[in-house]
C-alpha cells in the first residue's frame, strides 16, 4: 500500500487548499500577469482567510479584467462603485482602490525595468530562496527581503503591500521555497525552473 503524500500542514484537506498547494504555491513565476494577480490577491486577503480569496479568485479575475494592469489602471469612479456592489469579490473600498493604484504602479515599474518580474525578483537576487523548515511553525511571517520589498513598493505607490503580505506573496510565487522538508513538493521545487 502506497504511503500517503506528506503536505505542508497549512493546506489541511480542503480541496481548494490542496489543489493550490500541490499545483501553484511555491512554483517560481516570472509571468507579470500572474505576479500582479497574486500581489493583489494577497493584499485582498488581509484580515481574511486565504480560502475566502481562493473561492473568490475567478470572481476577481472577471471583475478586474483578468488582472490586466493596463486596463485596471483606467478604472475610475463609476467602475469602483460597480465593484463595491460585486459579491464575487471582497467589497472593501480601500482594497479595490489599492488594486487600481497597484495597476498604475505596475505600469511604471514595467516601463522602468522592462517587466514587473524583473523588478520583483531583485529582492531575492533573481533566484528562489531555498529554506529547510522542519515544521510550518518555524516559517517566519516576514523576512529582511519582504521588509525591503514592502518599503520599496510603498515608495512606488503600491498599497496593501506590508512586509507580511509581501512575504506571503514571495512564498506564493516561488521566490522562496517554504514547503516543509517532509512535504513532497519541497524537493520538487528545490531545483524548479522559473515559469
What does this structure look like?
By secondary structure, this protein is mostly helical. It has a single domain (9-190), classed as Orthogonal Bundle (Endonuclease III, domain 1), CATH 1.10.340. The chain is 52% helix and 2% strand. The protein has helices at residues 15-23, 32-44, 50-63, 69-72, 77-84, 93-113, 116-120, 144-155, 163-172, 185-190, and strands at 129-130, 176-177. Strands 1-2 form a two-stranded parallel ribbon. Helix 2 crosses helix 3.
Which fold name is given in CATH as the topology? Endonuclease III, domain 1
Number of strands: 2
Helix content: 40-55%
Helix/sheet category: mainly alpha
Looking across the biggest beta sheet, what order are the strands in?
1-2
- Give the helix tally: 10
The average pLDDT is: 96
Proportion of residues in extended strands = under 5%
General shape: globular
Question: How far apart lie the N and C ends?
Answer: 34 Å
Helix and strand run: HHHHHHHEHHEH
CA radius of gyration is: 17 Å
Sequence stretches where pLDDT stays below 50 over 5 or more residues: none
Largest sheet: 2 strands, parallel
Amino acid at each position: 500500500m502506497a504511503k500517503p503524500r506528506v503536505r505542508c500542514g497549512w493546506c489541511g484537506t480542503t480541496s481548494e487548499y490542496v489543489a493550490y498547494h500541490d499545483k501553484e504555491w511555491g512554483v517560481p513565476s516570472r509571468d507579470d500577469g500572474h505576479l500582479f494577480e497574486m500581489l493583489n490577491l494577497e493584499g485582498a486577503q488581509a484580515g481574511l482567510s486565504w480560502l475566502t480569496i481562493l473561492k473568490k479568485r475567478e470572481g476577481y479575475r472577471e471583475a478586474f479584467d483578468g488582472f490586466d494592469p493596463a486596463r485596471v489602471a483606467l478604472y475610475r469612479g463609476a467602475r469602483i462603485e460597480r465593484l463595491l456592489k460585486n459579491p464575487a469579490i471582497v467589497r472593501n473600498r480601500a482594497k479595490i482602490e489599492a488594486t487600481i493604484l497597484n495597476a498604475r504602479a505596475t505600469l511604471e515599474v514595467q516601463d522602468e525595468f522592462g517587466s514587473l518580474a524583473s523588478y520583483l525578483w531583485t529582492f531575492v537576487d533573481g533566484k528562489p530562496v531555498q529554506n529547510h523548515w522542519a515544521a510550518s511553525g518555524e516559517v517566519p511571517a516576514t523576512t529582511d527581503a519582504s521588509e525591503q520589498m514592502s518599503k520599496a513598493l510603498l515608495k512606488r505607490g503600491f498599497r496593501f503591500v506590508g512586509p507580511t503580505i509581501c512575504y506571503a506573496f514571495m512564498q506564493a510565487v516561488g521566490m522562496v521555497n517554504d514547503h516543509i522538508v517532509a512535504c513532497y513538493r519541497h524537493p520538487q521545487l528545490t531545483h524548479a525552473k522559473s515559469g
